[in-house]
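Reader question, answered in our methods column.
A reader sent in the components of a multi-part assembly and asked whether the whole thing could be modeled at once rather than chain by chain. We filled in our standard form and ran it. Here is what they sent:
COMPLEX SIZE: two components
ENTRIES:
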Amino acid sequence: GQNIDQPTEMTATEGAIVQINCTYQTSGFNGLFWYQQHAGEAPTFLSYNVLDGLEEKGRFSSFLSRSKGYSYLLLKELQMKDSASYLCACMDSNYQLIWGAGTKLIIKP
Amino acid sequence: GAVVSQHPSRVICKSGTSVKIECRSLDFQATTMFWYRQFPKKSLMLMATSNEGSKATYEQGVEKDKFLINHASLTLSTLTVTSAHPEDSSFYICSARDGTEGIYEQYFGPGTRLTVT
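And here is the structure of the entire assembly that came back:
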């Protein structure tokens, strides 16, 4: 079956760095997405990886290893506004998104 | 950037009535739109995939006669919750995928919070 695993909750300190991991098993693979979702709001796009390696975009970076079925989202210089849920989603062979349950990130001062 | 609007943002209705939610892609043509629902502190649950001009594909366990989806144009899809019951209360989110080849990102609408009393 298809499965996306990510931690349920993480806590980090303002100004620090946090890495959110995601492992996946899907029928085919056409890329991996990371979305940010604040409570009561819709998800917003953060990143898309389809090739192995690190994609950097400002304070956020996303890494993919297709051979390991693994990705991580790296957040640097954490700010209080980064407190949100981070959703990992894989696109399968039918170009459908398979969603993880999300990681709730709590930032403490 | 790609913008998706959703209307209404909040709706309260009485049990037994029907509610229509609109999803529009404002600056691109969306050949495919998706409807999700989300319960508090849970991840997104895909309800159905809607392709312009054809019938929606519903996920297992989603009643197609209860959740009517229409994708009449490349910029508009509607979800109608028929004979709503309190258990249908949820956060409904649509997303749209650009029809341009090679673009697979889904752009999300702001969501509709439905409360059935």
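What stands out: Chain B has a mean pLDDT of 90. Chain B touches chain A at residues 6, 34, 41-44, 46, 49, 91, 93, 104-111, 113 (CB under 8 Å).
Send us your own complexes using the same form.
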